[in-house]
Protein: Protein kinase domain-containing protein
Amino acid sequence: MFLAGWVHRDISGGNLLWFSETETEGRGILSDLEYAKKFDANGQGSADPKTDTQGTPFFMAIEIQRRDHIYQPRKAVGLKELPKRSAIKHSKPPLMIHNFEHDLESLFWVLLWTITIRAGDESTQQHVASIFQQSSHCSRERGKVITSGSEIVEELEELLPQELKEFLEYIEVFSCVLMDGYLTRKFELGKLPTYSRLYGLVRQLLSECLRVAEGLNTPLLLLNISRQDTQTKEVHPLAPQTRKRVPSTTKAGAGSTSRKSQHISKDGKSTRG
Structure:
């Protein structure tokens, strides 16, 4: 989608599918394009989280939840006397727009959720309950996972079973990669090379996670939350729930963009089949 110039805006565990016709080969599929849109760095964005904060809260980027940028420019350094207000440079941040890194951050949250809640025991689940909440609000604990990832890693070292601890190295590196991206890009949201570099790094990280998961030392783990748990009436409190979706009132054939019919072509255009 990055190569096509689109952002997904709703990456979650339920939208990541695995298709395989054999036991040894397969491919991943990213589904559900209901909220996907063409990325426009100069777009108007939205000050209302109800219109731009889409998708599953568990896997939302913290910038989208906070409606605020992680990067905050320093206004003054090495002051010897109190400056006048007119001498302080103000850098007005752009409106919050869902960008390519926000999609990558969603993959980070899927990974963390998988090893702590979906495969973790009850004590681990309760420890991260303040991080994964059914709310578009970003808790302090959740924000710190991105801004200071080493802290949560140290805590999980004491909680996770041995077979899952190897993933913690990649959790910490992943959070560092994301922070580096946000701080390096500053407010230049249209600077595409800052995203392409991250995509390369994240691909390496996820490849290493796959290697660990398929390794001889990693036994099959019992999943405490299955996909079916997210679809029953009595939902597990730490199972992700998608935000309520409003059905389209547009007549079929008159510009409907249902998730089943919308596709993104290689040239970045939206097509419907």
About this structure: Strands lie at 6-7, 16-19, 27-30, 37-38, 262-264, 270-272.
